[in-house]
Protein backbone atom coordinates (compact mmCIF):
# COMPACT_ATOMS: atom_id res chain seq x y z
CA UNK A 1 0.00 0.00 0.00
CA UNK A 2 0.93 3.63 -0.42
CA UNK A 3 1.49 5.07 3.08
CA UNK A 4 1.78 8.50 4.69
CA UNK A 5 3.27 8.38 8.19
CA UNK A 6 2.65 10.75 11.10
CA UNK A 7 5.14 10.17 13.92
CA UNK A 8 7.66 11.50 16.39
CA UNK A 9 10.57 10.41 18.59
CA UNK A 10 11.84 6.82 18.74
CA UNK A 11 8.31 5.35 18.46
CA UNK A 12 7.79 7.16 15.17
CA UNK A 13 11.34 6.37 14.06
CA UNK A 14 10.81 2.62 14.63
CA UNK A 15 7.49 2.79 12.80
CA UNK A 16 9.02 4.53 9.81
CA UNK A 17 11.92 2.06 9.74
CA UNK A 18 9.45 -0.83 9.75
CA UNK A 19 7.55 0.74 6.84
CA UNK A 20 10.76 1.37 4.89
CA UNK A 21 11.80 -2.25 5.42
CA UNK A 22 8.41 -3.55 4.27
CA UNK A 23 6.80 -3.94 0.84
CA UNK A 24 4.73 -0.80 1.42
CA UNK A 25 5.61 2.53 -0.23
CA UNK A 26 6.15 5.56 2.05
CA UNK A 27 5.02 8.61 0.09
CA UNK A 28 5.26 11.34 2.75
CA UNK A 29 6.23 11.78 6.41
CA UNK A 30 4.78 14.35 8.83
CA UNK A 31 6.59 14.92 12.13
CA UNK A 32 6.86 17.46 14.95
CA UNK A 33 9.68 20.01 15.36
CA UNK A 34 12.39 19.17 17.89
CA UNK A 35 11.44 20.04 21.45
CA UNK A 36 13.27 20.88 24.68
CA UNK A 37 10.47 19.42 26.82
CA UNK A 38 12.01 17.00 29.34
CA UNK A 39 10.03 13.96 28.23
CA UNK A 40 10.36 14.72 24.51
CA UNK A 41 14.16 14.77 24.78
CA UNK A 42 13.98 11.13 25.91
CA UNK A 43 13.95 8.46 23.17
CA UNK A 44 14.34 11.24 20.61
CA UNK A 45 15.50 9.44 17.45
CA UNK A 46 14.67 11.79 14.57
CA UNK A 47 11.88 10.77 12.21
CA UNK A 48 12.78 13.66 9.90
CA UNK A 49 16.41 12.56 9.59
CA UNK A 50 15.45 8.96 8.80
CA UNK A 51 12.95 10.06 6.15
CA UNK A 52 15.45 12.39 4.50
CA UNK A 53 18.10 9.66 4.45
CA UNK A 54 15.69 7.59 2.34
CA UNK A 55 14.54 10.41 0.09
CA UNK A 56 11.04 10.60 1.60
CA UNK A 57 9.48 14.10 1.63
CA UNK A 58 9.01 15.52 5.15
CA UNK A 59 6.62 18.11 6.56
CA UNK A 60 7.21 19.59 10.03
CA UNK A 61 4.08 20.52 11.97
CA UNK A 62 2.94 21.02 15.56
CA UNK A 63 -0.67 20.55 14.47
CA UNK A 64 -1.98 19.00 11.25
CA UNK A 65 -4.71 21.56 10.64
CA UNK A 66 -3.52 23.82 7.82
CA UNK A 67 -4.68 23.79 4.20
CA UNK A 68 -1.16 23.40 2.76
CA UNK A 69 -0.71 20.12 4.66
CA UNK A 70 -4.12 18.90 3.54
CA UNK A 71 -3.27 19.60 -0.11
CA UNK A 72 0.06 17.79 0.22
CA UNK A 73 -1.74 14.80 1.68
CA UNK A 74 -4.20 14.73 -1.21
CA UNK A 75 -1.31 14.92 -3.67
CA UNK A 76 0.41 12.01 -1.90
CA UNK A 77 -2.77 9.97 -2.53
CA UNK A 78 -2.22 7.46 0.31
CA UNK A 79 -4.04 4.17 0.71
CA UNK A 80 -3.58 4.56 4.46
CA UNK A 81 -2.04 6.86 7.06
CA UNK A 82 0.01 5.25 9.84
CA UNK A 83 0.48 7.29 13.04
CA UNK A 84 2.64 6.59 16.08
CA UNK A 85 3.36 9.07 18.87
CA UNK A 86 1.69 11.96 17.09
CA UNK A 87 1.19 14.43 19.94
CA UNK A 88 -1.79 16.53 18.79
CA UNK A 89 -5.33 15.92 17.51
CA UNK A 90 -5.66 14.71 13.92
CA UNK A 91 -8.93 16.04 12.44
CA UNK A 92 -11.43 13.79 10.62
CA UNK A 93 -10.78 15.35 7.21
CA UNK A 94 -7.24 13.97 7.52
CA UNK A 95 -7.74 10.62 9.23
CA UNK A 96 -10.62 9.78 6.88
CA UNK A 97 -8.79 10.95 3.74
CA UNK A 98 -7.02 7.70 2.72
CA UNK A 99 -8.93 4.83 1.15
CA UNK A 100 -8.38 2.68 4.23
CA UNK A 101 -8.42 5.44 6.83
CA UNK A 102 -5.73 5.87 9.49
CA UNK A 103 -3.99 3.19 11.56
CA UNK A 104 -2.76 4.47 14.94
CA UNK A 105 -0.07 2.58 16.85
CA UNK A 106 -0.18 3.05 20.64
CA UNK A 107 2.11 1.61 23.32
CA UNK A 108 -0.53 0.16 25.62
CA UNK A 109 -3.00 -2.70 25.65
CA UNK A 110 -6.03 -0.68 24.64
CA UNK A 111 -8.66 0.05 25.80
CA UNK A 112 -6.59 0.52 28.96
CA UNK A 113 -4.01 3.32 29.23
CA UNK A 114 -5.15 5.52 26.37
CA UNK A 115 -3.52 8.94 26.29
CA UNK A 116 -0.02 9.70 27.52
CA UNK A 117 2.86 7.94 29.35
CA UNK A 118 1.15 4.53 29.30
CA UNK A 119 4.21 2.49 30.29
CA UNK A 120 4.95 4.63 33.34
CA UNK A 121 1.37 4.60 34.55
CA UNK A 122 1.02 0.86 33.92
CA UNK A 123 4.14 0.10 35.94
CA UNK A 124 3.07 2.37 38.81
CA UNK A 125 -0.29 0.61 38.88
CA UNK A 126 1.22 -2.87 39.02
CA UNK A 127 -0.08 -4.16 35.68
CA UNK A 128 1.12 -7.71 34.90
CA UNK A 129 1.72 -6.97 31.22
CA UNK A 130 2.11 -4.12 28.75
CA UNK A 131 2.10 -4.03 24.98
CA UNK A 132 1.41 -2.33 21.66
CA UNK A 133 -1.92 -1.89 19.88
CA UNK A 134 -2.62 -0.96 16.25
CA UNK A 135 -6.14 0.37 15.88
CA UNK A 136 -8.19 2.28 13.34
CA UNK A 137 -8.44 5.97 14.20
CA UNK A 138 -11.80 7.59 14.81
CA UNK A 139 -12.88 10.84 16.45
CA UNK A 140 -12.36 9.52 20.01
CA UNK A 141 -8.94 9.31 21.65
CA UNK A 142 -7.37 5.85 21.09
CA UNK A 143 -10.86 4.33 20.76
CA UNK A 144 -11.03 2.76 17.28
CA UNK A 145 -11.30 -0.91 16.38
CA UNK A 146 -8.22 -3.00 17.21
CA UNK A 147 -6.46 -4.51 14.19
CA UNK A 148 -3.55 -6.16 15.98
CA UNK A 149 -2.26 -6.23 19.56
CA UNK A 150 0.71 -7.91 21.24
CA UNK A 151 1.65 -8.07 24.93
CA UNK A 152 4.80 -8.70 26.98
CA UNK A 153 4.98 -9.52 30.71
CA UNK A 154 6.17 -7.02 33.32
CA UNK A 155 8.94 -8.57 35.39
CA UNK A 156 9.26 -8.00 39.17
CA UNK A 157 12.28 -5.72 38.78
CA UNK A 158 11.46 -4.15 35.39
CA UNK A 159 11.86 -0.41 35.03
CA UNK A 160 10.06 1.77 32.52
CA UNK A 161 13.26 1.71 30.46
CA UNK A 162 13.10 -2.10 30.39
CA UNK A 163 9.46 -1.94 29.31
CA UNK A 164 10.28 0.63 26.64
CA UNK A 165 12.81 -1.74 25.06
CA UNK A 166 10.38 -4.65 25.29
CA UNK A 167 7.50 -2.77 23.67
CA UNK A 168 9.44 -0.78 21.06
CA UNK A 169 10.50 -4.12 19.57
CA UNK A 170 6.80 -4.91 19.05
CA UNK A 171 6.20 -1.87 16.84
CA UNK A 172 7.40 -3.45 13.60
CA UNK A 173 5.47 -6.75 13.84
CA UNK A 174 2.30 -5.07 15.13
CA UNK A 175 2.36 -2.31 12.49
CA UNK A 176 3.27 -4.43 9.48
CA UNK A 177 1.03 -7.27 10.62
CA UNK A 178 -1.90 -4.85 10.84
CA UNK A 179 -1.15 -3.36 7.43
CA UNK A 180 -0.98 -6.81 5.88
CA UNK A 181 -4.44 -7.63 7.27
CA UNK A 182 -5.85 -4.39 5.86
CA UNK A 183 -4.12 -4.91 2.49
CA UNK A 184 -5.62 -8.40 2.30
CA UNK A 185 -9.09 -6.87 2.28
CA UNK A 186 -10.07 -7.43 5.89
CA UNK A 187 -12.37 -4.65 7.14
CA UNK A 188 -13.92 -6.08 10.33
CA UNK A 189 -11.75 -5.74 13.43
CA UNK A 190 -12.13 -6.04 17.21
CA UNK A 191 -14.35 -3.45 18.85
CA UNK A 192 -12.93 -1.92 22.02
CA UNK A 193 -14.87 -2.52 25.23
CA UNK A 194 -15.33 1.10 26.26
CA UNK A 195 -16.35 0.07 29.78
CA UNK A 196 -12.71 -0.99 30.27
CA UNK A 197 -11.19 2.21 28.87
CA UNK A 198 -8.87 4.36 30.96
CA UNK A 199 -7.22 7.65 30.00
CA UNK A 200 -3.99 9.08 31.42
CA UNK A 201 -2.38 12.52 31.26
CA UNK A 202 1.22 13.57 30.63
CA UNK A 203 3.63 13.22 33.54
CA UNK A 204 4.66 16.36 35.42
CA UNK A 205 6.78 17.31 38.44
CA UNK A 206 3.95 16.67 40.89
CA UNK A 207 3.52 13.16 39.53
CA UNK A 208 7.05 12.16 40.60
CA UNK A 209 6.87 13.76 44.05
CA UNK A 210 6.82 10.97 46.65
CA UNK A 211 3.83 10.83 48.99
CA UNK A 212 4.83 8.71 51.98
CA UNK A 213 1.17 7.89 52.62
CA UNK A 214 1.36 5.53 49.64
CA UNK A 215 2.02 1.84 50.48
CA UNK A 216 5.65 0.78 50.12
CA UNK A 217 4.89 -1.54 47.18
CA UNK A 218 3.37 1.38 45.25
CA UNK A 219 6.35 3.60 46.04
CA UNK A 220 8.79 0.89 44.95
CA UNK A 221 7.02 0.72 41.57
CA UNK A 222 7.06 4.53 41.32
CA UNK A 223 10.85 4.49 41.76
CA UNK A 224 11.19 1.83 39.04
CA UNK A 225 8.81 3.75 36.79
CA UNK A 226 10.73 7.01 37.20
CA UNK A 227 14.16 5.64 36.38
CA UNK A 228 16.89 6.93 34.08
CA UNK A 229 16.51 8.50 31.55
CA UNK A 230 13.20 9.71 33.02
CA UNK A 231 13.21 12.28 35.83
CA UNK A 232 13.66 10.44 39.13
CA UNK A 233 11.07 10.22 41.90
CA UNK A 234 12.00 12.67 44.66
CA UNK A 235 11.36 13.65 48.24
CA UNK A 236 12.81 16.28 50.60
CA UNK A 237 15.25 15.79 53.46
CA UNK A 238 16.00 18.70 55.75
CA UNK A 239 14.45 21.02 53.17
CA UNK A 240 16.59 19.83 50.25
CA UNK A 241 15.45 17.78 47.27
CA UNK A 242 16.59 14.17 47.35
CA UNK A 243 16.09 11.88 44.36
CA UNK A 244 15.40 8.20 45.05
CA UNK A 245 17.26 6.15 42.45
CA UNK A 246 16.67 2.64 43.78
CA UNK A 247 14.57 1.07 46.51
CA UNK A 248 12.92 -2.19 47.55
CA UNK A 249 10.05 -3.12 49.82
CA UNK A 250 11.40 -3.88 53.29
CA UNK A 251 11.48 -7.44 54.58
CA UNK A 252 10.20 -6.52 58.04
CA UNK A 253 7.14 -4.45 58.94
CA UNK A 254 7.56 -1.01 60.45
CA UNK A 255 5.05 1.12 62.33
CA UNK A 256 4.90 4.81 63.00
CA UNK A 257 4.48 8.01 61.01
CA UNK A 258 4.83 7.94 57.20
CA UNK A 259 8.14 9.45 56.08
CA UNK A 260 10.06 8.56 59.24
CA UNK A 261 13.71 7.58 58.59
CA UNK A 262 13.67 4.48 60.71
CA UNK A 263 16.10 1.58 60.34
CA UNK A 264 18.99 0.12 58.36
CA UNK A 265 17.97 -3.10 56.64
CA UNK A 266 20.55 -4.83 54.45
CA UNK A 267 21.93 -2.30 51.97
CA UNK A 268 19.00 0.04 52.49
CA UNK A 269 17.48 2.49 54.92
CA UNK A 270 13.81 1.89 55.67
CA UNK A 271 11.33 4.75 55.49
CA UNK A 272 7.93 4.23 57.12
CA UNK A 273 5.21 4.22 54.47
CA UNK A 274 1.44 3.94 54.14
CA UNK A 275 -1.44 6.01 55.49
CA UNK A 276 -2.15 3.32 58.11
CA UNK A 277 1.49 2.83 59.12
CA UNK A 278 0.57 3.45 62.75
CA UNK A 279 -0.89 -0.08 62.85
CA UNK A 280 2.54 -1.66 62.46
CA UNK A 281 1.27 -4.00 59.74
CA UNK A 282 2.99 -2.22 56.84
CA UNK A 283 6.24 -2.87 55.10
CA UNK A 284 8.43 0.17 54.64
CA UNK A 285 10.37 1.40 51.61
CA UNK A 286 14.03 0.44 51.89
CA UNK A 287 15.91 3.09 49.91
CA UNK A 288 19.22 1.81 48.55
CA UNK A 289 20.52 4.66 46.36
CA UNK A 290 19.94 8.43 46.25
CA UNK A 291 21.04 11.56 44.37
CA UNK A 292 21.50 14.86 46.19
CA UNK A 293 20.71 18.37 44.95
CA UNK A 294 24.35 18.85 43.95
CA UNK A 295 24.28 15.72 41.79
CA UNK A 296 26.13 13.28 44.05
CA UNK A 297 24.95 9.67 43.85
CA UNK A 298 25.31 7.78 47.12
CA UNK A 299 24.27 4.54 48.70
CA UNK A 300 21.50 5.16 51.21
CA UNK A 301 23.54 3.88 54.14
CA UNK A 302 26.26 6.34 53.17
CA UNK A 303 23.86 9.26 52.82
CA UNK A 304 21.77 8.62 55.95
CA UNK A 305 24.50 8.75 58.60
CA UNK A 306 21.99 8.55 61.45
CA UNK A 307 18.41 7.42 61.86
CA UNK A 308 15.55 9.68 62.82
CA UNK A 309 13.91 12.68 61.22
CA UNK A 310 11.57 12.64 58.27
CA UNK A 311 11.41 12.66 54.50
CA UNK A 312 8.69 14.98 53.28
CA UNK A 313 6.82 15.74 50.05
CA UNK A 314 7.71 19.44 50.19
CA UNK A 315 10.58 21.49 51.66
UniProtKB/TrEMBL annotation:
Residue stretches making up the Formyl transferase N-terminal domain: 1-169
InterPro entries xrefs: Formyl_trans_C, Formyl_transf_N, Formyl_transf_N_sf, Formyl_transferase-like_C_sf
Pfam families per record: Formyl_trans_C (PF02911), Formyl_trans_N (PF00551)
Annotated ranges, domain Formyl transferase C-terminal: 205-306
Full protein name: Methionyl-tRNA formyltransferase
Species of provenance: Streptomyces bobili
Upper lineage: Bacteria, Bacillati, Actinomycetota, Actinomycetes, Kitasatosporales
Amino acid sequence: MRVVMFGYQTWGHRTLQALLDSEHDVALVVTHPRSDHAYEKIWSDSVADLAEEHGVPVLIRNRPDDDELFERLKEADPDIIVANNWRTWIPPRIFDLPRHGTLNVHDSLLPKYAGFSPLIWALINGEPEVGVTAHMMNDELDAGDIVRQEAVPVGPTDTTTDLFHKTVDLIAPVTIGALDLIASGQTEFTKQDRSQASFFHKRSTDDIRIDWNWPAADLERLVRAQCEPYPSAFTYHKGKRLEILAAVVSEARYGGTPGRIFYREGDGVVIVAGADARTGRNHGLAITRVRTEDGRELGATEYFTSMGGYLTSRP
